[in-house]
Structures are given as structure tokens and as C-alpha cells.
Amino acid sequence: NTTTTANFGSFAPSGLSTGFKWLDINGDGVRDAGEPGLSGVYIYLDLDGDARPDVGEPATLTKADGSYLLTPPLAGTYSIREVVEPGYVQTFPASGFHSVVYNGSTPLGGFDFGNRESSDWGDAPAPYATLRSNNGASAGQFDGFKLGANWDAEIDGRPTSAANGDDTNGALNASGNVINDEDGVTLLTPLVRGDNQNIIRINVTNTTGAAAFVQGWIDFNGNGVWGDPGEQIVSNLSAVAGDNLVTFTVPANAVNNGYARFRLSQTRDVGPTGRTAAGEVEDYLFAINNGPRTILQNDSFTVARNSTANIFDVLANDFLPPNDPVSAVLPGPSAQGGTISIGSNNTLRYTPPRGFFGQDSFTYTVVFASGKRETANVTVNVNLQFTDPVAVDDSFDLPTNSVSYPLNVLLNDIEGAGGALVVTNFTNPDKGGAVSIGSGGLSLRYTPRRGFGGTESFTYTVTDGQGKFTTARVTVHTLEGDRLDDNVEFSFGFRDMAGNPITSVTQGDQFQVYVYTYDLRPERGAGQTPPTSVQNPGVYAAYLDMLYSSNIVLPSSPGANTTLDFANSPVAPYRSGISGSASVPGVIRSLGAFTGAEKPPFSFADPSLMTILTFTARSAGLAEFVGDPANDSPNTDVVLYNPPNAPVPLEQVRYLRSTIEVVPKGTELPFAVDDSTAELLLNSTSFINVLANDIVGTAGPIRITSVTQPANGVVSIDNRGTTNPSDDRIQFVPFTSSLGFTDQFTYTIADTRGFTSTATVTLKVGDTTLNDKMKIQLKAFDLNGKPITSIASGSQFELRGYVQDLRGPTSQSGVFAAYQDILYDRNLVAVQTSPNGLGFQIEFAAGPNGYSNGKSGDIRIPGLINEVGSFQDSGSPLGTSELLQFSIRMKANTPGVAKFVADPADISPFHDSLLYSDPRNKVPYDQISYLPAELVITGGSGSAGGEGNTNPFNRFDVNNDGFVSPIDALILVNQVNTKGGGALGSGGSGEGEFTGDKYYVDVNEDGYLSPLDILWVVNRINGSNASGEGEAAPAITTFATSDAATMVDV
């Protein structure tokens, strides 16, 4: 073969030329400035019109400038053609040749030819030679000569970490999918270290009659080159058309993932870099393991809900022996009750259970002709697949006189084929409130009319990337006024499958949701003066939409004797007009029934059970069930038995919400753990390391995938300028305010498999104590009941919880119930377990002033004492004194400063904190003082090995007198002036080389005494607390804990 060369020199084609041959770089068929000539191209007169050069036909080669000269032998009409070299495609003329008329004397001219380069390139990542700039491997196009069945051209290499840049980019097939041209090499066995029976199949297409040679390399040592001894596994293989089998050895010390390159060419001894005139380049990433060799590989498929006979080619990813054909493929049973049968060509047909969506699984066994059997697992994700987006209704409870309250309406909306949704429009609220679209269209912000307490609704519209839109309704309840005139209530309870009440369920298990309805009028009437009564009370028709967290739980499949698409067991007498639809995840629409000819049941202060639903716990986290108005009036109106035929207005229906916790099954899956910050500065940006205390699971790293917005600021994901998801954190920018506040937002994490978990972050910004009604405090004691601030490693101690009503004393004062999560340093201390009770050593205070009813708590998640609390024993208010609630036995294991953080409980209403005077309404988290404890753990020498120089109750209170005053700043000034500042020791409460008294001098908790600590106190006193101009937000830690697993830096 001749070699075509592009001449980029400053040559002009000869004026006597018949034409000019040029390199059409942009492939547009037009000779542009700067596009060079191509030399050495064969141009000929096709005298006999057979479109190929023959002996005796005039011909020439293009010169260095691309010009050529041809003169026909006689006058007449001729075709001028070129021989297109491998690696090039003709772009001009469009017909492929010039038809010319020669008069026998006038020279021919202007008959040019254009070619663009057509080469296949590799896609292995750097530092492998893949790009044109580093002499990457490429091969020119030669029709009928390729690896596998497909070939496509690229301008340059497409390096990607998975070596699939060529697979996922390029020309499309008839179905609109990218043609995967890397189809020439197939592993017939898994690659096993130290084994000499690893087999690959190399498929070659060769209809040209030319010789075909294959070279192949695997980078077994992972050093980024293919030149090391033993790495060329295929050398000058004289390949036949069709399949070529190669057996090779993998070194015993090979890396886990090896990048491979295979090259087809017409010449021998081709290396892993550079260009060949014809052939193909294919790069792969192969997994290498220790064996034993497993032929079958697990499968994962996704199907639509209620689809039928989905074809699963389970053998497609398996390593089938070349000389041991498959005799049979035998499916096992479906874990969720799906139907599986054997299809043609050893495929399986799968039909999910009716109404089911979620994850199903089954096994299949392959029987080979030799009699050998092997089994693998199949995971089936049954999804609700939507072409168009679907907005789902939302319901929110918020305080009266809220301002710009964030409504995260997109959380439960369903994306269609058009991808991500943004809020594009809304209607005006029907009671005078105001709505605006939040930043980026990702939320709404709502402000009710001043002084309004009631139910307000409006609609919003979301739009996807294809311009498709959908609308849903938002119902907002402003408390407490919303509930004053309510006549009907809907509520929810949870039970295990044996009917026992529960507040948590293990991931993967089923549980029951009890749906209740209640006529509120008799109870309200009994409390009036004088008392009033209601004749024939009870709810006759009870209908609602039930919203639920579809990322955490899913409705279970229905039985055979129902037309509904979810598991529903109506309870008498609510068995007429049964309805409901679970076709959209996140909501069961129009759930309910009416009593028919029967009078509805009524028991004072005892809601009526109307139906029992069965759900499956899908992912770890908190699943919330929320009542919301049904939309199909009049069919789904709420109606009382008396007066009859009169729908209850929406404003007079109380829709409650309940939360159940789904706890992870072991530590295989990721689990997001709540966080609580220490006091953050007002009007200053903070950074929160929420990943620090999360459980990674077995498929890390985890990454933050989304956040919701707090009421008093904006949060966003900060990747710190790196591609490593493990160092991502949350940036919090508070709205400008002169008053402190407590706020919350949630964040969601995901592992590499896509499993997710969501947690809540509680923010404390500035002084948050002004409106507090209740105090929950932790304190450390030794086993003799003496308060302690330090303890030797290896010793046991008690962590005690106290509660107190902070309001002024009245005859109804007292804390009735208190629940909390306790975050602790799992690397420093451990909770002592117990085979009895709650599974750990905890004692609740009993007696007249005790709290030993409704006991709760678990230690299933490392670093978290979950939902610990109880309610009071006596029937009388307990007053405003601080009272002991519980004592937990723990052990100090490692020197350091252990912190114990009181954090709001999550499971509502079952673990709400309540005051005696108002037992039906929980105390909001932002009206509770959660006070932490800190314990210095010393080693053999008495050194704690940690800080202990920051006040755990109020970082700004340097002298721990309970106030933040100029005295605190003065102490720091004196310390800096006399000692000079610098690194702090580990002497606990400020005791160290810089302090003679017990002062907490490390205000910003950076491990140093410096003027910055003074500045923080001064700003706190002045109330501005803003960073100076040009200064970055300082890095400080929160109350969360001091160990790396639970640190929060801001």
C-alpha cells in the first residue's frame, strides 16, 4: 500500500495541473484556507467505466503540493477517479468522480478531490497514550477490515476512566443509541491471578483478502504503560475471519483492574501507540480477581410497574465456556411473588407482582452439557416509569407569622423523560398569603397573612428540560390557629405484621399503617363552659390523599381479591365506596370509604380505625406519612353522620402526620446520621461537615446528592474544589438577622450503587434561648453519683439526662414527655450493652417525680443513642425544677475529649416532647434548649490527648459564669498579652500552659489561643458576628463530637 501524506507547506498548485487533492480537515467538501494538499494519491482515467484502475488506463500520483496532471489519449468524455487510501473518506466530489469532456487540445483543469481523515482511536485514560498529542494509537478506515462487527471514526482519542469513551460517543443506530464499536474482544472466563487458563475471544471481520494481525496488552502492574514484560498477551496473531481464541496467564501480583488495548492491522509488530493505515483500536477495563473462577455473573434489570413478560438475557454477561454448551437455564422463585418462566434462546420472562414497585430478586441456575451447574442472582428494580413529569401534592405545617418559609415542593415530584424539574409558576394563595419562587426554581417560599392561623392552599407548576409541565396543589396549615375550628381528624399509627405497635422497622421488612378518622366535636364540646354535646357523632365518609416518603417505604402488592393496586384492608364499617390509587409514588390518592347503611363508630378520645395498609421498608431513614385533602370532589368529600349530606369544609379537617424510622439491616448500606451544630455566628457563612458521622456501608465513597432549604438561610453543597466526594460539605449562608435562631434542613447521601439515606441538620445561630420553653440537658457522673469533667480511660461512667420546664411557674408547669437523639464520640466511648430491655444499660427515674413510662431508645447505629426518652409516671404536673429522666452506663475507651450532643428526636408524634399544660401539641425543636456534655478522657499519664478548651455549653462564655460579657474578652486579652498565644494543651476546661484558672479560651475551637478568639467574643457581644472584609469563614467545630467520625467543621 502507498502512504498518503499531508503537506502543510506553502505550496501553490501548478497552473498546469488537472486538479488538486487536499485534506478536508473539517469534512465540509469545500477547500478552505489552510487545508493542505495530500501527496502520493493515485488518480486515474477510468476508460472502461468500471470504477477501478486497470492496466493501460492513464494514471498519476499527486505531487507534494497535492496537484496532479492527466491528459486523455483522445478527445472524448472521461471519468477521473481517485483511489481512496485506507484511513480516508472522500468528501468531494459528491459523486465520487469527475465526468469531463476533452476536446483533444485544451488541457483539463479544476478537477479537485477532497478527503477527510477517518480513523479509529482508543479511550484508555491518562497516562496511557490515547490522544493525538501523545502519539495515541489510531487506525485508518478500510471497509471490511475491523475488530467485531462495528467500526466508527473519531477526530481524536476519548480517554475515560472506564475506557468507554468510544463506546458511549459516536454515530447512532436506527434506535437512536450510540453504536458501540468496541465489540471485537470478549472475555470467555473471569480473569484470575496466577492462572494460565484465562481465555479471550477476538472476533475479526476481514472481507478484503489482506492479511490480518492482532496485538493485545493488559497493564497488569497498573503503571500506565503497556511495555512491561508479560503484559503483551497477544503478539502478531495471524487472525482468521471470525472468532480467534487466545489463552494467557495473569501474573499472581496483578492489580484489581487492568486496562487493555487490542489492535488490528495489516502489518506485524505494531506497538500500543502510533498510527496504522488500516484496522481498529479497542481499549477495555478488565476486573482481575483471586478466584475461584465463577462463570455466572449476577444480573440487574429495570422494568416498569405492571409490565408483563419482560425478556431477561441473563447469560449476556456470563462467561460461557467455548466447549461446554448450555443445556438449560432454570429460574428460582421471585422474592416478591413475581412470575418467572423460560423464554426462547435461554432467556427468562419476568412479570412483576400486580401493583408492586420496588426491588425484587430471584436466582437462576445454568446446567451445562458436561453436567456442571452454577447459580447466580438477579435483581429487578420495578419502577414507575413516566414519559411526562408528575407533580405530587404537598402539605406543610408551619408557625403563624412565618416569613419566607421554604416549601421544598420538588422532593416528591416525579421526573419524566425530560429530566430535572424547576418551579416555573404558581397561583396566589386563597387566604391572602404570599408566595415566591426560591433560588434556581428549586423551592417555593411562603409567607402567610399577618396573624392568620388556618388552612391555605394554592397550586404550583413545574417544567422539565423538554418544556413539559405539570401542576400540583400545596396545602399549608399555620399553627396553632389552624386547628381551633377543626371537626374531623385523620391520623396514622404503625404496627408490625403481628399487630404490635412500633415506632421503627428494619429495612426490608413489611409493616402496617393504621389509618384513623375521628369526630372532634364531642371532645371540643366537653371542654366548653357549659359543656355541649353532639347527637349521633361520627365520621360517615372518610377520604384523603396519603402522602408518604417513597424513597424510604413503598406500598406492598395487593392480594388477589381486590381491584386496588396496593395492599389495603378496610375495617368495618368503612367498607362501602372503597377507593384509592397508588399509581404515582409518594401518594395514595383518594384513600377511603364510607359506612353505608351502618352508623359510624364513635368512642370519646378514641379515633376510629378505617383501614390497614401494608408497606415495605425500602431504605434506611425516616418515613413520614402525611394526610392531605383528596381532590376528587364530590366523590371523596369528608362527611359527618350528623348533619348528613353536608361535606366538611377543607378548613375544618385536621390532617396529622406520623413518622416511622427504618433502621438499616447491618452496616452494608449507607446511613446518614443527624447533626447538630454548636452556636454559629450570626450573619456569617459556615461550613458543616455532615458526612463525618455518617455510615458509609460497603460501597463507598458516599456523596451528598441533595439538600433541602432551611427557613432562615440558604444551604448548598460545597465540593471544596475537588472531585473527591468524601470531602464534600454543606455551606450555610444565613439571612441577615440581629436575633439568634434555631433552624433545620435535610441532606441526602448516596453510595456508588445508588442506595440513599437522608438525615436532618439542626442549626443554632447566635443566642437561641430567648423563646425556649423546655430544657433537655446531658451531664456526666462517676459511678458514685459525683459530677465529673474527666475520667481515666478504661473506666465506666454515667451519662444522665435531665429535663426542665423553663416557663414561669404555674399550677400546670412541668415537662410531661421528653425524647432526644444523643450523638457521641464512638471512637472514644462505648455504651454498655444489656441482654434485657432496650438492649443497653439505661435506667429511667421512677416515682412521683419520675419518667419511666413510654421508655424508648436503641443503639443500633454506632455513635447514636437513638430516640431515647420517656414520659412522666404521675398524673400531676411536676413543676419547674430540673429533674432526672434517665441514666446510661458508658465506658471510656480512648484518651480524648468526648462530647455528647443532645439532638431533636425524629419520630413524631410518638416521640414528641410535651409540656404538662399542653399535652396534645409538641414543643417545637426551636423552643427547646438542648445542652450537651463533655468529658475529658485521660490516659495513663493523665493526658487527655484532646482539646477541652472550648466551653461545651456556650463557646463565648470563657469564664463559664453563664454570661457572655466584656469580662470574657478581657480574660482572653490578658492571656494573649501575657502568654503570647499559640497551641493549647489538653488540660480540660482551659487548664493548660496558657491558663492558671479554669477558662475556656479556645472560642473558635481551632486548638490555638489567638486574637481571633478575642474577635469572636467581641463580635458576639456587639451582635454583628460577621467576618472581616476579605476574611474567609474560620474553621470551627460544633457540639457534634471531636472524633473524626462525628466532627462538624464550620
Strand and helix map with partners:
Blueprint: E1 5-7, E2 19-23, E3 37-39, E4 42-45, E5 59-61, E6 67-68, E7 76-82, E8 88-92, E9 98-102, E10 113-117, E11 119-121, E12 138-140, E13 145-147, E14 185-187, E15 191-192, E16 198-206, E17 213-218, E18 232-238, E19 242-248, E20 257-265, E21 275-276, E22 280-289, E23 299-304, E24 310-312, E25 326-331, E26 339-342, E27 348-351, E28 358-368, E29 373-383, E30 394-399, E31 405-407, E32 422-426, E33 434-437, E34 444-447, E35 455-463, E36 469-479, E37 488-495, E38 504-506, E39 510-519, H1 521-526, E40 539-548, E41 553-555, E42 568-570, E43 576-581, E44 587-594, E45 608-617, E46 621-628, E47 639-640, E48 653-655, E49 657-663, E50 675-680, E51 686-688, E52 703-707, E53 713-718, E54 729-734, E55 741-750, E56 756-765, E57 774-781, E58 790-792, E59 796-805, E60 815-824, E61 829-831, E62 842-844, E63 853-858, E64 864-871, E65 883-892, E66 896-904, E67 914-915, E68 928-931, E69 933-938, H2 966-979, E70 982-983, E71 1008-1009, H3 1011-1022
Parallel strand pairs: 2-10, 12-21, 15-22, 23-29, 30-36, 37-48, 38-49, 50-56, 57-68, 58-69
Antiparallel strand pairs: 1-3, 2-6, 4-5, 4-7, 7-9, 8-10, 11-12, 13-16, 14-16, 16-19, 17-18, 17-20, 20-22, 24-27, 25-28, 26-27, 28-29, 31-34, 32-35, 33-34, 35-36, 37-39, 39-45, 40-44, 40-46, 40-47, 41-45, 42-45, 43-44, 46-49, 51-54, 52-55, 53-54, 55-56, 57-59, 59-65, 60-64, 60-66, 60-67, 61-65, ...
Helix pairs in contact: 2-3
